[in-house]
Amino acid sequence: MAEDDSGRGEIANCLLPIEMFSASIPISKPFPAPLVSVSDQPIILSMPVLHAQLPAAPAAPSEAELSRILRLEVPIIVKLAERKLSINEVMRLGAGAIIEFLKSSEEPLQLLVNNKAIGLGEAVKVGENFGLRITQIGDVRQIVAAISGQP
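Above: the chain sequence. Below: its structure as tokens.
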């Protein structure tokens, strides 16, 4: 590396005057300068405060809308039991096959709405049909959350 008269080497020759880098950048809307107190007191900076608008609360549904919502039909499921099988076992299933579940026939069945449990019950026979006698049911909030798909 060659040295110049200053003894700083070639690096000194690469330095450019600072004026080459100064440029004025146009600002469409300048920020107000902070107010500064100059005295024996502590310095207090005052900056503008940004206020965020909160979203408006959703309006309560009208009586007609509520009536229409309450007439909607939703599917309900009574869950007997659950078990995992391998694909191989599923492929071997045929007419007459029996799948055993690890749940007592005395245990309550789950009542599901939108795949969310809202209650428990026991199996009953209603004429020639199957039914569910509800033994426990969630509160209104839990049921509404299940119907609306909320966690």
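Residues 17 and 23 are 13 Å apart (CA to CA).
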